[in-house]
Amino acid sequence: RAAAFKKFSYRGLDMEAVLDASPEQLMDMVCARARRRFSRGLKRKPMALIKRLRIAKREAGPLDKPAAVKTHLRNMIIVPEMIHSVIGVYNGRVFNQVEVKPEMVGHYLGEFSITYKPVGHGRPGLAAMTAKFIP
Question: What are the beta bridge partners of residue 29?
């Protein structure tokens, strides 16, 4: 038997309702930190990013992925309008491609672009062997 497709919902609302929500309704859906951020207003740079994402989506075909939009705004909160966009999020060294999915709404862009290389705890190197203390 084929697995049933799980329908996406954000805080109890389906995808269409989230996309059609006004900014005031969206503010009621997100957590307190994001509510505070939106209540203080979106500044010039976040608005410019949203504007560039709109342009990229408009220029892409109906079934194509939009062109990637590069940004340093790791502290930008993902809003429903960004869904299905491709964003290059800067991590201090390179721009990591992030395709925004519905599950990411309310999170920060920086959460999806790791800034460090995770440590691989393997065998100790040669320098560790020579520096070992022997009484």
Answer: none
